[in-house]
Amino acid sequence: MKSEDQEVMKVGLYLNEIGTNGVAKLMFSDGNVSGISLSEQVNILQIQNLTLPEDGEKPATRDEHIAVALMIPLAKFATKFARDDSKTKITIFEEAWMLTNTGQGHKLIKEMLRTGRSLRSAVYIITQSTLDYNRPDIKEGIGTKFAFKAKTAEEAGNIIEFLGLEDNEANHKMLKNLREGQCIMEDMYGRTAKIQTDVLFNEWVNAFNTKENDKGRAETEEAFM
């Protein structure tokens, strides 16, 4: 910004402006902020507030351009993390449907599913609907599947197709009547059954409770991280 070259100064001013406003500050800084590191045991990369273009669409607004630009280094970091075959790792994609909106995100999940086993890297895909990943290039790479209660007949049909169950009234009824903590599981051998999860500690229930305004939830999460 202090350069005598006007063009260089303009670039500096522009980077400073986008690096101090909005989500772009996740990528640019003046050097006083520590970046993400592969040396940490747990890394959380949040993309919740990124304004991503719709699937197949090019970014049109400034926010969308910044969001897509941010996805590139985030995807590269996740890939670098997964490719360290000296350690056993888990990569969890929470609300994974957001990644389908960008080519980088979709490519990242496909690559990690295909190479994860050989690199000792487990991949967990968590999404609200099986329809988001009910496609051959994704679901064939998933070894174990869990599907929880279906609220609509359409959603039950998507789950049945995703798990390869027989499309009949009994299975539709079973999926719509699952109780809290119950789900349908398909293991790596293709065996499918209804299971009941058993939470060992009440602290875990409190830590993952998203239904109530529990002020102590964050403290509980930190205590067990």
Automatic annotation (TrEMBL):
<dbReference type="GO" id="GO:0005524">
    <property type="term" value="F:ATP binding"/>
</dbReference>
<dbReference type="InterPro" id="IPR051162">
    <property type="entry name" value="T4SS_component"/>
</dbReference>
<keyword id="KW-0067">ATP-binding</keyword>
<keyword id="KW-0547">Nucleotide-binding</keyword>
<protein>
    <submittedName>
        <fullName>ATP-binding protein</fullName>
    </submittedName>
</protein>
<dbReference type="InterPro" id="IPR027417">
    <property type="entry name" value="P-loop_NTPase"/>
</dbReference>
<dbReference type="Pfam" id="PF12846">
    <property type="entry name" value="AAA_10"/>
</dbReference>
